[in-house]
Write a structure and sequence with these properties.
Largest sheet: 8 strands, antiparallel
CATH topology: Thiol Ester Dehydrase, Chain A
Oligomer: single chain
CATH architecture: Roll
Strand content: 35-45%
Order of helices and strands: EEEHEEEEHE
Strand order of the largest sheet: 4-7-6-5-3-2-1-8
CATH superfamily: Hotdog Thioesterase
Number of strands: 8
Radius of gyration: 16 Å
Length: about 170
């Protein structure tokens, strides 16, 4: 019932690591969750995954709410990649094509604009093999106040590790 994550050479960058938790999108303790492995680079946050039938709406088609969750997650983590945490204040999604279950996907999120505690973000879900854009999104995130940010950092102990550090000898990424 989980998403399958297979890093590829093109995914070189850094991977977020954190304490185990129950987030539906990225928490390893949520048995029914997506278990997204999130990465960061100069442009923002991304993940690659293949969704199984547990995440479908119509037969064989990924549920739009699941795609929205993935987009929300990569946009939120693009903000976290700037060393702040926040909450979603507004989000809009445009579904361009039905997404088949079992299709290899790449989701990307970026910060388009940052002003004080507000971050305007953009996201997209693509076919990981062809680059076809399947869904796009925009979002606004409000940064946590300093005292809450300190609590979140202490709770989750966020770090980034080089993607290549986990590769077997002689294999990149």
């Amino acid at each position: 019932m989980t998403s399958e994550i297979r890093p590829t050479t093109e995914m070189a960058g850094q991977r977020f690591t954190f304490e185990p938790h129950r987030c539906f999108a990225c928490g390893e303790l949520n048995e029914r969750g997506l278990h997204l492995e999130l990465h960061t680079d100069a442009s923002g946050c991304w993940t690659e995954l293949t969704l199984d039938p547990a995440f479908q709406g119509w037969e064989g088609v990924v549920h739009g709410g699941i795609l929205s969750t993935i987009l929300d997650e990569v946009m939120a983590w693009s903000v976290i990649g700037r060393d702040t945490w926040g909450v979603t204040a507004r989000m809009a999604v445009e579904f361009r094509r039905p997404v088949e279950v079992g299709r290899r996907l790449r989701a990307e999120g970026t910060v388009a604009e940052a002003r004080r505690r507000l971050f305007r973000t953009e996201g997209r879900v693509l076919d990981a093999l062809t680059g076809e854009i399947l869904a796009t999104s925009t979002g606004t995130y409000v940064a946590a106040p300093p005292e809450r940010l300190a609590e979140l950092k202490a709770r989750y102990r966020l770090q980034t590790v080089d993607d290549r550090a986990d590769a077997p000898d002689g294999v990149d990424g």
